[in-house]
Amino acid sequence: MGRRVRIGAGLLALAEIVVFVLVAGWIGVGWTLLATLATSALGWVLLARQGTRALTELRDRARERRAPGRALGDAGLIGLGGLLMVLPGFLGDVVGLLCLLPPTRFLVRGLLARVLAGRLPAELRGPVHVRSRRAEGVPPAGPPRPGAPLVIEGEVVRDEPARDDAAGR
Known about the structure:
Layout: H1 2-27, H2 29-63, H3 69-86, H4 90-100, H5 102-119, H6 165-168
Protein name: UPF0716 protein FxsA
Transmembrane segments: 7-27, 33-50, 71-91
GO cellular component, one term: membrane
């Protein structure tokens, strides 16, 4: 895993240098440096504004004893976005801006959730929702009683033909 991270970081740094050289060739070195400084300053401003909002929301949720939920994820994305905006580089600035702005933050959150959920082992993933033809139209039963066993009615359907143990050996 460490080798992949190093290779990925190296490729990202190389891509940032290539984009920086291309932009410098297009608008000039001075304007490119000025744009880099401007995006870093914008990153500080957005980080301060959005970070304050995220921390206030987390504080309010803690005071009301509610689970942090999406507010904690937003605070993490705001921190990541601020870091990417403050560091020099135009590609990081674009990704950082997507993390910092509330209208586009859901895109990054959805992409990260999809990537992380695909890498989790099956037993650590969230609940599985199954649709049953026999149960359609039946109202939900509500929460189970304490100490009552959880019973799930269903049937097993095999896609492959069953193998006889004596013949399969």
